[in-house]
Amino acid sequence: MALLPSILFIYFSLASANPSQLSLPEELFLPLPAEAKNTSKPIAIKISKLESMSVSSLCLEDREACLNLIKKMTVFEKEGHRKPGDPAANFCEDNHGILFILNDKKGQQYNFCQISPTFFVDAWDLYSRKEKLKTP
Amino acid sequence: MKSNFFGYLLFFLLSFFGFKSLAAMTFLQTEIDAERGPSASECSEVQNIPMTKSQGSLNLCYAFSVSTLLEHYRCEAQKLDCSKPQEQISPLDVSARLSQQNQEIIQSGHTVQLLKNLEASSDKSFVPETCAPYSGLVLKNRGPQRPHSEAAWWNEMTNLFNSEHRAMMEAPRGTYRCNKGALISDQFTNRANEVFRAISSSQSPGEFIYHAAIPLYCKNPEIAKTVPDFELHKYPEDPSYKAQAGPKDFEIMTSQIRKLISANKLMQMSACTDLKPGTSTCISSHAVVIGGIKSTPPGGASGVTKGGCNFSLKILNSWGASWQNQHNGGWVNGCEFLTRAYQLPDGAKLNWIDSPSGETQSRSAASCVKSKVPNQIRPTIKTAPVASVNRAPLAVPKPLPLKSPNLSLQNSQGGRTPSGKKIYWKCQGGGYTAQPQVGKKCVRVEI
Hints:
- The complex is a heterodimer.
- By secondary structure, chain A is of the alpha+beta class.
- Chain A contains 5 helices and 6 strands; from the N terminus they run αβββαααβββα.
- Chain A has one domain.
- In chain A, a hairpin with a 5-residue loop joins strand 4 and strand 5.
- In chain A, helix 3 crosses helix 5 and helix 4 packs across helix 5.
- About 12% of the residues of chain A have low confidence.
- By secondary structure, chain B is of the alpha+beta class.
- Chain B is 35% helix and 14% strand.
- Chain B is elongated.
- The two termini of chain B are 23 Å apart.
């Protein structure tokens, strides 16, 4: 009888285990160049959700300004031949954003687009938003 | 498989100890799990998958996909945990092996040529990614006048080499003065002399970029990641064989993919991302790694079976973890992906590496653990707006008609409510089921 709670726990843990769906980390880190690795600490960026997009937490403090910048980027797309490489990265850079490859604690790499000195948005969230707007 | 086994075990134990209602719930859960998606035996993933990478704006997908193959092969051969950042190999260093004459980084390289060169090379030691991180290549906080993207940095370095290398060669001995000294010392704080020397020693912009991107101290053999010797394999083996996209060839290709996945092998494949407007000529492609395959009933609960395709592939892309997240961990419509692969001039080709016969034994692949089903799955590889209009139609069977109107709601949410509760159906004259029964009055129950 004493085993039952453990068995229940194991069963429901396994049933809900979900490794292929990567969860968004709460904190990402700005990369450092090789020569600065021993002298500087990586800068952490806190990540939150805004309208189903992953953004830097400072975006929530000035929601309207952040959303306006996102809107501007997703409405005015630079036309031209598609560049090779990651389309979300190119979209960010073509629209005056700065693409950062941020790392989580485990070292997984995330593409974030810096749209102002303090606002970062997940580059794929931004790109998907633009694609959705294009679809009638 | 695992959860089903535990489910049946729990059902037996609970029944044995007299908890009949709990046992019934457990049995129900097990049955619903089995019904909801492909069973574990129909889904397999490669174990010990390397970390997700991002190539940013440079066209180096070929080097990123090859470095993923090399990392996994090394981790498996040396029994290392490939999810650790310290096991990563620098894709820039991998790219530099494409040229046999000198070490130069080349964009838009050919994956198979790179793999062939590596197979033949006696030097399979690579710079660790942690020493020369690609993500730290461009210092993005150096003010508005400095390049912020990898592509802009690449162009700046190319221009620097072209102007200074020529000036250096043409100037009479002892008279050369570097015009870009400030730029070099700004970009390469502690390595300015090393980079300056690379301008004269390099023969091409790509070679200079290699020396600029990878510091000398990272080439120390003591920290190098050495990959054991390997053999390159291809499928189809006959290079002249060009398969056509369609159910028959999909079946042949997927059986090969299943075979490799079950032997825990990652494989590289390229797919077309852009077609020339109004034609079926592919003008740009993208190289990725395949790390899993699963059967998905057409129009079934997995949500990735758009167009009636009955299998999904797990793609390890070099577009960052955000792409993987948005695509259900990398699971994409298999038919759509293979159709894009068949659009390449050479057709769909699988490339993988394996130990020279009989040296090591690889472990078996793992069954997939059930993943949450997203509400909407986006296309596999995003194409340009123009290309998407001219995309060749998928040669796949039509989706099966849905059995009941309620099913579509259930399928779209994968048997769960948005708040995560499980959806069951209690139908007249029967117990709980995962789906409403046709012709019977059913009540939806959320638990």
